[in-house]
Amino acid sequence: MQFQDKTLIEALCINYQLMRNAYADIMENGSVKAVYRTVTNPTNGEIVATDFIGYKCKPSTQIFDFATAKIKSNSKDLVMTPQSRAELLDLSKDDDNGDSVKKLKELFG
Asked: From CA 100, how far away is CA 82, in angstroms rounded?
């Protein structure tokens, strides 16, 4: 196993843990939170109203999305997806001029 592979595997594991933690937080606390705007009286600072203005995604949803994308990318780089394995098999088919061997060496150094 090459150093680059070890680094990719470590990154895959870290992002997997980030994804799990974010998912657990989403399941416990939800994925969005309500956002309110407080209106105050400019003369005395008294709260006049609290207006609902919508929903905002919690940070865990962004972490989940980012980690999921990185897992997919790392998995492809490590030839762990069906598509990447199919591409590897296509490259390994024998051809007359030896290009497939050159392409495999480029992929795996």
From this structure: 19
Which is more confidently placed, 66 or 75?
Answer: 66
Number of Cβ atoms within 10 Å of the Cβ of 13:
12
Amino acid at 53: I
Domain ranges of the chain: 3-78, 82-109
Give the pLDDT score at 108.
Answer: 59
Burial of 45 (0-12, 13-18, 19+ CB in 10 A): exposed
Listed in order, strand segments (DSSP E) in the chain are: 32-40, 47-57
* Assessment of whether the complete model's pTM goes beyond 0.90: no
Please report the pLDDT score of residue 82 as a whole number: 77
**Tell me, what's the pLDDT at 80?**
78
